[in-house]
Each structure stands twice: as C-alpha cells, then as structure tokens.
Amino acid sequence: MTKKIIIDPITRIEGHLRLEVEVDENNIITEAWASGQLFRGIETILKGRDPRDSGLIAQRICGVCTNVHYRASISAVEAAYGIEIPDNAEIIRNLVTLSLFVQDHIVHYYHLHSLDFVDITSALNADCAKASHDAESWSQHPYRNSQGHLESVKEKLEGFVKAGRLGLFTNGYWGHSTYRFSPEENLIHMNHYLEALRIQRELSKAVAIFAGKTPHPQNLVVGGVTSVADMLNPQRLNDFLFIIKEVRDFIERAYIPDMVMLINAYRDSIKAGEGRTVGNFMCCGGYRFGKNRQLFENGVIRGHNFEHVEPFDPTKITEEASRSWYENDTPLSPYEGDTTPFYTDLNDDGSLKTEGKYTWVKAPRYDGDVMEVGPLARMIMGYVKHSAIIRPYMERFMKRSDMELLDFSTGLGRNAARAVEAQICCDYLFDTMSDLIENIKYYDETTWTKYVFEELPSEARGAGIFEVPRGVLGHFVRIEESKIANYQAVVPTTWNASPKGINQDRGAYEEALIGLQLSDPSAPLEVLRIVHSFDPCLACAVHVIDATKKELSHYKIMNTYSL
Amino acid sequence: MRIVIVGGGIAAVYIANTLIQKSPQLEVLIVSDEKHPPYDRIHLCKLVEDCTCTDSIELELHPKVKLELNQKIVSIAPEEKRIFSQHAAFHYDKLIIATGSIPKTLFDISELSNAATFRSQRDCERIAQGINDKNVVIVGAGPIALELLDTLMRSSSPKSITLLVRKNYLYSEVISREALELIRGIFEVDKRVQIQFNDEIIDKEIVDGRITKVITKQREIKNPFLIFGVGIDPNIDFARHTLECAKGILVDDRMQTSDPDIYCVGEAAEVRHGGFIAGRVKECTLQADIAIANLLGDQDRVFRKEVAIDGLKVGSFLFADVSATDFNPKDSDNETILIAHKDRIDQYIVKNDRLKRFIGINTNIDLLAIKQLMEHDSVIDAAYLYSNRLMSESGRLVCSCEGVHEQELIDIIKENAITSFGELKEHTKAGRVCGRCKQDICTIISSTPVDPTEAARLRAEKVAMAQAAELEKVRARIEKYNRLHPKNQLSSENFHEALESYEMSREFNRWVSMITASMHLHPQFEEVVGESVVQLNKIPIIWLELSDCTGNSEAFIKTSHPKVDDLILKYISLDYHELLMAASGDQSESALESILHNDSEKFLLIVEGAVPLGMDGKFLRIGPKGETGVELLRRVSKKAAAIIAVGSCAYDGGVVAAEPNPTGAVGVSEALGREDIINLPGCPTNPINIVGTLLHYIMFDEFPKLDAHNRPEWAYGFRVHDNCERRGHYDAEEFVREWGDEGAKKGWCLFEMGCKGPYADLNCSLVKFNEGTSWPVQAGHGCFGCGQGKIAFDRYANNRKLEEKAND
User: Any chain B CB within 8 A of the CB of A183?
Assistant: First the structure.
C-alpha cells in the first residue's frame, strides 16, 4: 500500500514550494513531486522597460539572495551592450557577492539546518569539562571552548527552558531515533549556534558597507558601482576587513570542525548514498581575481563521471514547461522563453495533478539533461579540474574527515561542500580586497565605464550568468528598440526544484528523495534533512497526509528561523 | 573678563546677576552714582510714606558682584577701555550702560528747598520731610504723577494737593472721557485734592531759596511744595561725546552702541531702527537679555518689541493696560469700543479689526488672552468683545511677567500657609521679575488669612488626590492589559531571566534607547518601551507571506541594532510565520488554526507581499488544501485585532503590481476593501519602523498617528531629502554629474543622478540600515522612493531625473 505525503509550504526562496511524495509499505519513498505555488510575473513586468532600469526591478525576485539578482540583471544588460565594467567595480561587486556566500552558508548550516542533527534537550545533560576536552579532538584551537564558557552556554539554554521559551527550539523530534550526537557534541554545536547569530549580523554590515543596505542593496548601475566614496574611505575598507577576519576565525575553528564531527556521526548515511541525485552537475565558474585567476571552475559532469568534464556552454540551456503552468510546452532558449501562464489548477482536494502540469517552476535542462547546481557541484568541479584554489581545501577536508569524492554527492556531503566553500570564499575576500587596495594605491579610482545610452545599439541580447550561493543563476535579456523585449531568470532553485521533464526525468529535489527510508512517516525528519541539504532556506509546517488524504499528524520544525 | 555696568537700578542688578549666573568666571562691577545700593524705583511711593524702610525695596545682588557707590561717571575713554568718575577710573573689557533717565523739570530746582522730582531715594526723603502742612503741587498727568498723588492722599501731612495738568487728560491721551471722569471722581473724593486741567505754572516767587508762591494760569498757590512728574530724559550726558547719540544712546537691535565693546539698555538706549526707547521694566529686562546673550557670544538674538502689559493699582481702582507693539495713538484709523458699567470700564482700541490697545479700569478681563489677541494679530469682531468678556476664572492678572492671577496666588498662599513675600519664593516667581506687582502681592498675602493646620490638610489632600489619580491610571492600565491579554504566560520575572540567559540585558537597554529615540519619545519613556517589549512577547503575531520575495522578513529578522534580531525572535511572540514558525507542542492542529481559534480578536496580523487577484487568486496557493492567497488573507483577517501591511507590495501591490500587473496584484487594503489597515511601505521596510509601530500599539493600545495613507507619521512624516546628509550640497548646488566623478568621491548631492529623495516620505536618512551602517544615498546611488508603492517601480526606479508629465 502506498501513502502520499504532502509537504507544503516549503520554500523561502522565491514563492511557495510544495513537495508531495509517495512511500511504500516499508516507508521507502518511491516517487516525488516538487511544485512552486506562486507566480508573480516579474519577468513580464520587465518587458517594455528601459534596459538600464532592470536591476532595481529584477532584484525584487528574491529578498534572500537579493544582491545576486540585482547583479545578474545589470550584468545581462552590460553583456548585451558590450560594456566592460572597470576593475574596481567588479571587485566591489565580488566583495559584496562573496560576503553573501559566506553569510548564507553559515546561516544555512547553523540556523536552518543544524537542528536536524542537534538535539538541544540532550545538550542540557552535557558535562562541560568533558565537552571542552572533546572539542579538542575536532580542532586544535576550538572556538570559545573554555569550560567556563561552555558552562555559561549550558546555563543560557537552561535559562531558556526555565523562562518557558523552549518554544523556538521545540518540536516533536527530540529524542528521535536518528539523532546521533553525544550530549557534549550537542553542546558544542549549540555554543556555535549562538556565536553564529553574531557572526552573520556582522556579515550583513559588511555587505551594507559597499551596498548601502541589505536586503535589496542599492549600489549598482549599468557600467559599474556607485559606492566610490565608501571605496575611497580607508575606514570603510578597514571595517570590512576586520569583519571578514573575525568570520574567518569562526569558520576555521567552529564551522569546519563541526562539519567533520557531523560527517563522523552520520557516516553510514553517507555510505548509503542518502540524498544522492543522478549525478549531473553544472557550474558556470567565475569570480576573477589577481591577474588571471578565477575562484570557481566551469563545467558539466554527467552521471558522476568525474573523468569526463564538458566545458559549460550557456547556449545549451533550455527551459521547458510540459509539466509547468505555462502555455508553451516546447524547450526554448531563455532568450525566447515564454512565461504566459496556463494554469490547470489543483485537484479538488488541493493535491497536485501529478500526471499533468503541477508547478509554476519551469524545467530547465542542459543539453536535455536535468542538472544539480550549488556548492556541491562547484566543489566537485574544482576538485576534478585540479583547481589550484579549490583542490587543496578539498583534499585537506577529505583527509581530515576521511571522505571520498563520491561521498560528497549525498545530503550530508552537500553540507560538507558548503562548509569548504564558505572557507574558500572567506579567504578569497582578502585577496580580492588586496586587489582593490593595489588599484587605489596606484591611483585607479575608476568605478564606472562611461557610455552614451543613445549611441548604444537599439537591438541586443545578453546574459548575466553567475555562481551564487545556491548554484548557477542566469538572467537573460533581449533588447529591441532600446526596450526590454524579453526577460527570463533561471535561478538555482529552478534547477534543483525542477519538475519532471518531457521524458519524465525528475528534478534534483525529487530524485534525491527517491529510495529514502523513513523511520517514522509521521515525523519525516529524514526528508527534511535531504530537502534542507539543498539550502532551500526554509522553515515550514509539514502536513502528512495518508493515501485517503486524511491528515495523519502535523508537526512543526524547530530549526525555524534564519537570521 | 571684566564687565562694568553703569547704573544703579533694576536693569543694572538684573544684568549683573544674570551674567554671574550664566558665566561665573566673569568679573562684574556695578558703578552707581547713588549713595544707596541698588533699589527698586517702582516702590518709591512706599518710601515716601515710610522713609525708614529703604531695606525693603533694596534689590538682591549676587555676592560676587562688586559695587562702587557715589561714583558719578563723567566720561568714557573707549580706546583705553576706561570710564571716569570725578574721583576714579575704572577699566572694563565690556561696558554696559544702564543709567536710566533723569526726570525733567520746568526750571532749575537744584537750589530750591521746597521743590523736588520723583525719581530717587533722595527725592523721596525730601518729599517726605518737606510736605508737612504744605500746599503740594504735582505737575504732570502720567502714571508717575498719578501714583504719587495716590500716595500723598494717604498721608495726612499735606494741607492740600493740586494736580496741574497741562492738557485735558489723565494717564494717556487715548483714555476715554468716561474713564477720565471715573479716575477724577475717585481722586477728588479727598477734599484736599484738586485736579486742574488745561493749567500750568506761569510764574513763581522765590525767597531765600524757597518758593513762596506758585502762579498758574488759573490761580495762585501759596506756601507750596512743588513736585515735577512731567517726564524723563535719558541719562546719558557723560556719553554724548564718545558714543553716537540721538535722544538716547543709539544702539542696534543687539543693543550694541557705536562702540562694539559698549552696550546700552533700558531708558538710556534708543534703538536706532524706529527710535524706540524702553519705558517698562519688562522691555528693559528683555533688552538686558539681548545684550547679555550677545556679549556671551550668541549673535542670533535681537531685540523686538513685545506686547506690553501694565498693571497699576491706584487708590481704590485697578488699572490695566495692554498695548500692541505697533500701536500708534495718533492713527486716524483707530476706533474705540467702550464697555462701561458703574465703576468698571473696558476700553478697546481697534484698528482694521485688529486689537491694538486695551485699557481697563477695575476690569477682570483676562489680560493674557488680550495679549495673545495682539500677538497673533487676530481679526476680531466687535460683537465678540461685547458678548465675550475674556474673563479669567482665576480673577484679575496680578503678575503680568509670570502670568499669575489673583485666585492662583490665593490658592498658593492658602495651601502653603504663606505669610510673607519671602515665603512665596519657592512656589512662584510672581512679583520677582519686574517687581511692579510686588506690593500688590504683599497686600494679597496680608489680606489672605492662613491657617497652618488647614494648609497642611490642603497639601495632604492634594498629594492624596494625585496619588489616587495615579493609582487609578495604573489600575485602568492593568485592567485594560488583562482584558487584552488574558493568556499571558510569561511574567516579567521570567523575562529577566530569559534576558540574562542571553547576556543581552545591556544590548537590550541600548536597543530600547534607540527605539525610544527613533520614535521621538522622551527618554523617560525608555522604561515604558522596555516593559512593552515584555508585553510584546505575549501578543500573538501572525505573519502571512503572500506574493512576496521574503525581503521584509529578511530585513525584519536580520538587521538593525546589535542583537535586535535575537530580541525580536526571542521576545516578540511571532507565533505564526510561514517561514519562521516556532510554535510547539500542538501535534494535532496547525499553529495558525490554534491561534485563530484561541486568540481570535487578539492577535496582530502582519502581511507581507501583494495579493494577486487575477485568475481567481490562483497565482498563489498555500497549504495542502490549495487555498488561494486572498482566501487565506480574508479568513485570517476576519479574526485579527489589527492588520499591518509591511512592505510596498502589501501597501498597494508594489513591484508585483507594476505595469502591466500580470497577476492583478493589489495591496492588502484594497484586497480586503478595508480602510483600517496600517501601512508600513518600504522595499524592504526598515525593521525599526515595524518594531516601533508594534511598540506604539503595545504601549498606547492604539496605533500611532497616521497620515492620509495610513502610514505612521513618526516614521513617514519626513521627506528623505529634508534630512539627507547630502542636503547641504544640494543647497550649495554641488551635484554628482556622472557616476564616480569627483563629486561622487566627495559625497555631493545625487539629485542630478536621479535621486528621488525629494519625492520620498521616509526616515531612511535618519535611521539608516543594517545597524546604521549605510543607506542608498550614502552608497552613492540615491533614493528611488521604494516606500512610495508601485509608482516607485513605474516612475522612480531609475537613475534619471523625474520628467514632469505635462499635466502633473
């Protein structure tokens, strides 16, 4: 007998995401559907506007990774017109984007995801002296690890409970059979959970130094950046550097050791390949620094074939809508992409029409294949392409955690890849800042490339394609009569949360869930671990429904907020 | 610095005391030509009656002020910064002349033993000693002459008193006939008194330095004692050669004479513009204040005439006089309105429907109200003056400087068992500013019986009443609070524990201060704000996300003052947030259902995102049953205590409703057809504005004052442009002309680069973002009015100056 479980809403990306899964009598997931439940039509709104204005509108696609849409949109227009931005402008854009990477990854792990693994009630039973000692087996210099400090953390948690404020940390999962950490390990994680609250706040300030505010920064224009006064203010540069320095310390002494601890505790899940997709990875690469170096490699890998890497070719990207609520079913290039809604509704009981169209998310394909994007894809790509930047970090981590490359292609492995990437991005911020200081030192204060709009071609097309925290982001713009004629954004979640394609191939979320066994279908913690590993950045109420659509139980997730 | 003041009157003392108070390190010296320490000339009359009590009209002088008596200044040497008397020289750094005036006489009386003026203490002594059994002749018709007449009437010494009036009026040429008759009648009750109008001295006989006979136009008066009360001249002879003078020493409106180190105030000074010479104490002290302010470096204060109030108690009648600054007695447009009844007369002089002067006899008109009518130059209706006598419930105005009425004084006297003028000091300043009403107040004190037991009872009663009122307030608040929050689980005791558990007590206090300041509340409110955060914990909040980008949620929980995010998460009871939800324990119902069920009418609903109405709302579906966004909003909003639309999308659709509005998106207000939605537009909305609005609701149990768009005025009552850090460059026309140009590097104004700050109402320029790190203008981009709603995304979201449409 199969049961259907509806998990809605999920997303905190762009609109509202739903998952429906079917499980067999052994509680093993046999099929899954991911569905976007909101259509806003930002792309439609952009049509007919002055191309220079696209950034401010397009960034409203998402308030979580808002800066990257702003940047991709402006870059798409620059690409269309062939405007090359000054070195300083690119550096400032990179400083902001890379800070966002680090912030996003830290918040994701500690505040959205870690409580899928950390049992807070167990931490209250920890022996602080032992915890302080144990921490040294994960790091030579553990972060804020004195026995006294750990006592105070424990005291805080106890105070929380006493104050009747367990609410935020309470759900039905405490004591779930799949929690693995010792009380001491739980306490170490909770210590870092609290520290990370402060760290991510500092990072928001770093972003605002060059971008005015976050979310929805305001420092970009076609041709460059506007925050030249901040760039030339040594105190602002200094403030930025000191924030990054503090963050780096946290990553090396807390985030990475915690990740090694996590891998050790859940090695069986990794070896069982839980959360693995078909193994198609796509990266566009990027983030130039120094003379000719770049942070990320581009490439496409299919079916975990690490021996063969194809170069990334954006023209091979298509979007199709056979299972999505749009009119045109045929695969089209994003430049031609059509977003005319064709809504076929839900079933009368509110469930998805799983045989037909079932989502507002389109199905992007690369050369016809579904792809997974994100930190995992980037780290694998950097490793197999022998990136001088990424491979040493990966090797160090693999040695320390005793992992093979394929082990990363799992739910747990995605988190490991994300942690390594956070460390790399943080270090890279120093190099990038050095480039900026060098430029200013030799009197290059240029932040904008001059152009005369009226002299630009009236017809053009261009794309802004970037690696962003959750994967490959592409904005595609076609300009006619100096106005936007068509606009399409293919965001990371479009790739990972893709519906099935014309040939029934599943999207990454869907595929990663197949074969997963649930120990208790009324508390599908395993599902959340996999879904969260993609960084959907969500907290959700989950409704579990049986085959007769009767609600079995309801529970809330305790890793409920991101900061 | 050494300040020398020349003069021995009220103005000199006032200046000296004020200077020492404001700047204790100054050396202040008063040089006076009198043999007595400075005294209050207004009370000379008392002196005539009772010559021995000079002490009682002596003015209080700060002990640090030095005093040189019997030094008549004869000349000034500005180059050396010295002044000279007959015997000595005094050095000054700054000199203030407050020598007042000298009385006029019609002929030289310096060698005569039975003639006097009425100005100094010496004059009073002479008068008191010389009038016995004499036919006293007072020359003059003004207030001084009348006051003297009143005083002498009360003495049995004079054989007769004749008031010689050159023209045909008393007090002022504008006084009404009725008033004149009334005054005259009051004086002439005394058979010794005779008032002779249209009369003047035409000759006299002098024998051995004594006047034996005064011959007037109408009669001869033998064995006279002659007193001149005909007017005054500025006492400035010593300065005529060194300073520019007209009638008085000429000063600008900062009371500076032609020598910048020399100031002149009061009756000796003539304001260069307009030729004004002060006569009243109030005007003199005002001028003194201006001189002091300028001397101490405040160049902004200048002298302007003020509406003058004079009160005069003469014999059995009370005289009240209010005069507008631009009153001109000779103006032919003046009209008089007279309301007379028995021995009471109210005389209004009106010009072009505006009140210019009021003279009242035995009136109980509220002089402060009259003063305001003149200050505002209000148009008045004559009928109004007839039907509405601006009476003060507190009786007549006694002290016009402090605005204290008779009944108020009596209450103070009774409540505090006051028996002397000195005891009154700690309760009111009445009688202590210009001193004119001091005698009047003394009379009120002596005629008000006090009972110390009764006074104690009154005081206790007052305190008890205040306490009861306070208790009642607290009780009402507790009652209201309990009514609104019946399900409170967290006591404030636990709250403190929770705070400590997060080591954020300190940050909490800082945060509270910041919120208090940004809401423009007095620091006193910090405690209330702090308390209300505790309360906030207990008010359930449902946060719905509709057609949104989560930007407001991100901003709300991510940024602001250090650790505010922790606070908001932990101390605001965000019981339902589709993305942040933290409810617990309830395994059978969703948190939303449980709040709708248990906290109906009690929870606050916050909505983020637009409401798509197109395609029957199916562009957004939420939950396993596939409810549309608008259905969910309607269902939840019905049970909400109040609804707050956060962000520009929830305001009017925002970017989602931008042309061509593909999903038919509207704001919350329009979707629900309700006018009572609180709007907090912004993209995203600054969390300070969300939390501040919530706090206001908690603190006052109502939303802050809203503008026409239902936006709180405390956050949206500012134009970004007006408070912009680059505003100075706008005014100086220093503009960025091209991205990254020299102006951009210097932080010049972004108006030419399409900054829409002039079209945006928000407090971004005051509170900034991300813990005050920056904001779009600081980042050199400029504002695009993201808080103005969808118009921002259709017209403002670009880097070009707004092209005004033809019909705008």
Answer: no
Each residue's pLDDT tens digit, A171-185: 446 677 888 999 999
Interface with A, mutate which of B497, B549, B753 (most A CBs under 10 A): B549
Whether residue B226 sits in one domain with residue B138: yes
Contacts 24+ apart (CB under 8 A), B324-331: B324/B354, B324/B355, B324/B356, B324/B357, B324/B374, B325/B374, B326/B356, B327/B356, B327/B357, B329/B172, B329/B173, B329/B174
Question: Could you list the residue range(s) of the whole structural domain that residue B385 is in?
Answer: 307-391
Average confidence score pLDDT of chain A? 85
Could you tell me which residue, A525 or B17, shows the higher pLDDT? B17
Nearest to B359 by CA among B325, B389, B406, B319: B319
Tens-place pLDDT, residues B343-371: 788 888 988 888 899 888 887 777 888 88
- Helices (H), ranges, B559-686: 564-571, 591-598, 629-637, 647-652, 668-672
| pLDDT tens-place string over residues A205-256 | 999 999 999 889 999 999 999 999 999 999 999 999 999 999 999 999 999 9
B625 in the same domain as B563: yes
* pLDDT value at residue A523: 66
More confident residue, A524 or A203: A203
The type of residue at B79 is E
Residues B554 and B682 in one domain: yes
Q: Is B138 found in the same domain as B97?
A: no
Picking from A201, A216, A219, the nearest residue to B551 by CB comes out as A216
Q: Do B658 and A63 touch (CB under 8 A)?
A: no
Contact (CB, 8 A) for B291 and B263:
yes
- Chain B within 8 Å of A404 (Cβ-Cβ)? no
Nearest chain A residue (CA) to B502? A156
Instruction: Sketch the domain layout of chain A as residue ranges.
Output: 3-114+198-556
| The dihedral sign for the CA sequence B772, B776, B778, B779 | positive
SS3 state at B28: strand
Residues 492-551 of A with CB under 8 A from B: 538-541, 543, 545, 551
Length of chain B: 808
Beta-strand relationship, B160-164 and B135-139: parallel
CATH class of the region A3-114+198-556: mainly alpha
pLDDT band per the 50, 70, 90 thresholds, residue B581: very low
Convert the pLDDT of each residue in B93-129 to its tens digit.
Answer: 999 999 988 888 888 888 888 998 887 778 888 888 8
Tokens of A102: 């680090």
pLDDT at position A157 over 70: yes
Q: B755 and B801 in contact (C-beta within 8 Å)?
A: no
**What CATH number is given to the structural domain containing B662?**
3.40.50.700
Choose from B621, B767, B791 for mutation: most chain A CBs within 10 A.
B621
By Cβ distance, the residue of B555, B738, B768 closest to A215 is: B555
Residue A3, beta-bridge partner list: A23
Type of residue at A98: L
| Mean pLDDT score, B714-739 | 93
Confidence of residue B665 (pLDDT cuts 50, 70, 90): very high
Indicate the residue among B295, B323, B344 that finishes a domain.
B295
Q: Which of A120, A121, A190, A157 is nearest to B501 (CA)?
A: A157
Dmax (CA) of chain B: 123
Interhelix angle A375-384/A390-401, nearest 10 degrees: 100
Q: Which two tokens stand for residue B790?
A: 């969808």
Quick: pLDDT tens for B182-203: 888 888 888 899 999 999 899 9
Model confidence at B722: pLDDT above 80: yes
Residues with Cβ within 8 Å of A464's Cβ and at least 6 positions away in sequence, in order, are: A71, A72, A73, A74, A75, A76, A77, A78, A79, A474, A475
Contacts of B112 (CB under 8 A, 6+ apart): B206, B209, B210, B211, B226
Residue B610 falls inside a structural domain: yes
